[in-house]
Amino acid sequence: MKVDSVDLFYLRMPNVLDIGDGSQDALLVRVRSGNFEGWGEAEASPLTSIASWIAPMSHSACHPVIDSVLGERIDSVEDIERISLKVRTNSFYGIIQSNLTFSGVEIALWDLLGQVKEQPIYKLLGYKTSEKKLPYASVLFGDTPEETLNKAKAMRKVGFSAMKFGWGPFGRGSVEIDSAHVHAAREGLGKDGHLLIDAGTVFNEDLEAAAARLPMLKSANVMWFEEPFAAAAISAYGKLAKMDPGVKLAGGEGAHNPLDAQTLIDHGGVGFIQIDTGYIGGIGPAYRVAQYATARGVQFVNHTFTSQSALAASLHPYAGLKDSWITEYPMEPKQLCVDLTVDKIEMGADGMISAPDAPGLGVTINVDAIGKYVVDAEIKVEGKVLYSTPTL
Amino acid sequence: MKVDSVDLFYLRMPNVLDIGDGSQDALLVRVRSGNFEGWGEAEASPLTSIASWIAPMSHSACHPVIDSVLGERIDSVEDIERISLKVRTNSFYGIIQSNLTFSGVEIALWDLLGQVKEQPIYKLLGYKTSEKKLPYASVLFGDTPEETLNKAKAMRKVGFSAMKFGWGPFGRGSVEIDSAHVHAAREGLGKDGHLLIDAGTVFNEDLEAAAARLPMLKSANVMWFEEPFAAAAISAYGKLAKMDPGVKLAGGEGAHNPLDAQTLIDHGGVGFIQIDTGYIGGIGPAYRVAQYATARGVQFVNHTFTSQSALAASLHPYAGLKDSWITEYPMEPKQLCVDLTVDKIEMGADGMISAPDAPGLGVTINVDAIGKYVVDAEIKVEGKVLYSTPTL
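Above: the input entities. Below: the structure tokens describing the complete assembly.
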């Protein structure tokens, strides 16, 4: 079989707001080969990514992604690895958006291969089982500690025993204010729950400011302290980790290739590595990081805040790993992401979820429902149309 | 003063070949404020970068670059830093091409500020002098050691006492073949010259293959061993550096923010950090790396293979540093890059070059000569034209 066609779709909500909610638009990829079809999503600026798909070549290391994908053989997992390597080799300089763009394409190739082989992706990866994961609820801090307390209580009531608070006022005022929020979150969650704190890179590279938060995080028994620094601030991570903070560091959502994640493990000292399959290059690179992390006693966690198909793509790479038992679950996605799939990865009676058992990703794109979100876009160079929105 | 307009131009040669020559196209940026004008270039896929400039916002951390630049105050160096931080804060997730795109904009802002203050950029950066640098000639290995020998002899004859050989057959066959090439280069250059070897990331992450080349590199008295691994393979760099190879490692052209370069210094153990001003975010980030490197005994070197204006932009950030005394000089750029500027940074009778003393970058874009290279491009979303090629 060959990759007969690859179509990129830019979907978005009627109104996109200037808020930290990545579910307001989507870059959806459809791959076809013979009578089979696969779908994937990238966590990336749709228009920029579409341009990287078709941009005219600049030189031998700056090819558009399409050059390495269309017409390629696709019969096995090795073919996907070969195509990935081709993209890296042909697009590594001057077109770094290609890493993100290809993530969606790569996921679609796995989904397609799963349809052909009638196997869920986790089995194609070599896992025998799809282990249960504990979903955590991810929410913003309230504007006041009281609001944070109430949010935590509400989440607990819905059934979440693990929750993550982040962003909002955290790190923007005094340590005392942060502490009040963190302890309010702990109070609302209860002593037995897993509490995660996400600084959202607020300290950039400021080691001292991040370190000042450690004692109160420890006293609230926080399980991880996420993204205190900018994604690339490896040395700051490493120094904070060496302070023996009594709370593990988490990070990695900014990794746009597996080596970035390995550097954060090797030199950043994180205890949890958080990977977005739609950002790091797809299923293969995410799986590689999961194996690398596990071998070093680091827990792998997905980073997912959009759709159920993105959630499925993020679960397969570590489906079979028992030691990596927690998972980010998109809590309040916009209607676009709700409508995107026919099915949903539901929590069981025990509150746990796992990677689906149906072929490929295991969730089905709801083609009939998403037409209204498709954005009409066109890119022309010297009068020639290089991209126009394909038909769903 | 305010940033009144920013215009992005996609320039290219009539025929772009699938070869390792980045001078075949260019992303040129023009910034205007009042009666002043500044120019900059990014080392980036032009069309992809243009898309990142105007792509509709996806969420609060995925703004197009234009949102952080147009209409901003531009009176001082601090304003450029403020705008840079704004871009990083507003565009750090899902639109990583923005790092490259903004490099060209940032350089244009410095050029403009230099016109306003009637100062060369290196003085705006705080340097008192523009130190002389030794330009090295950068060429590909020949297909045979004899060819490599002849290339080295020819370069020496033209006057280069420092030269870099790379790519071609290197690392693709046996150590013996590589050794024959490296020793042929040394023979052609002469005992007293500076010989640099560029592996062009050929070993990807293969520590053993790279290490096997060390003894012959040492025996040929090679000054640096450049990019043995993929840019992000920090741990592989670090392990190779710890082998006490007798030859210093060089790398960094893939750094698309200053933290990437710092990680390569801190954990990759390089002795030379090679920065492309048009890739790392512009003059400010390159200057920051130059200072960081110098404080740690690491030499800063530019990475430049295109135009004279790119060369000027790459010289200013380390103009005043005496210890960083070598510079990459674009040898055989395509006509587009020759025509791009009115003036040229010429070698003195002593074979040395230095950052220009004229205001801003110190080289002038040849607006009359480049019109024929401008590519007509258009990007439309929902019928609205977000980009069309501006008038030169």
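Note for the figure: The radius of gyration of chain B is 21 Å.
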